Model the fold of this input.
Amino acid sequence: MNRLKSFESPESPAWLVQNTGEAKQPLPGLDLGEMIHHLRQSGMFLLRGFDVSLARFEEFTTRFCDRFHDVGTRQATETSNSDGYTSEVPRSNFSLFAHSEGAYRPWPPPPDLCFFNCVKSPGDASGQTMLVDGAGFLGRLPRDLRERFDQQGVIYQAKWDQARWHTEFGVTNLEELDALLLEHPQCEYQLEGELIEVRCHVPAIQVSMGGVPAFANGLLAHLPHVSHPRWQGANAYSKGTNRVFFGDGEEIPENVIHRLIDIQDDIALNHAWMDKDLLILDNTRVMHGRREIDGGGERIIRSRFGRIRCDLAQHAVEVRFE
Ligand SMILES: [Fe+2]
Done:
């Protein structure tokens, strides 16, 4: 038997389908429209206790998506025997602030949906995945800051080596990159020896599958350093060559970054993994991040990121304006 219920946070409802029957039961033949309905409503959906092999995981994701996303930071972690679009979440132990996948550049477009499948949970309550509802986040932003993000968007600056920009933009040389960026003038670069310094001006606020505006972006995962007192000693990810700016070119000051981290920490739903969990997120609404694992435990999580099938996107748009 399967049970459908809301779980964890009343402020940020999520939906769980739990297998309460045979341990070997494969993924349920849930109605796709029903799952889309719950994704539209809450931006997240969890299947727990089902027997999820790699092949079943990949097949399941193709019910929703027909185009999948290469993760620019994970060239070396593709899972063997997969179709090439399943990658393993890095096993190294660190914290990473909540972000929308691939939201720091305009092309290829960021994925609509994120799929995570827990092969091995850390075995205690640590190593959780932070789930941050961007709709709730937006409601907590001070009005002036919300308006500024809404009107100006955000600029991400990064230095990428050749392998990284080849993967990020899906090109093999600078001529192809130049041709691509002619179509996307909100993104520009300059050469720095073997590296490029790239600046991309993109929205900070997106409209979700369910039609609600959401503060869903990559800002907090793109910081040059983390100085928030609550996160000192927590091995929170940053990269010294990254920068984040408001759309008018002013670097986002530390007090604003701290405010954003405070909102994240206030509303984050900390998902403690169980083996076989399959979590689906609307990437245009729910940001994901990670917390450190205590005590030397290890977690293994498969991931896939995809663009929603055109027929389902049409369905989502139709119901959006009911
Ligand atoms: Fe991610």
User: Anything to note?
Assistant: The mean pLDDT is 87. The pocket of fe (ii) ion is lined by residues 99, 101, 288 (CB under 6 Å).
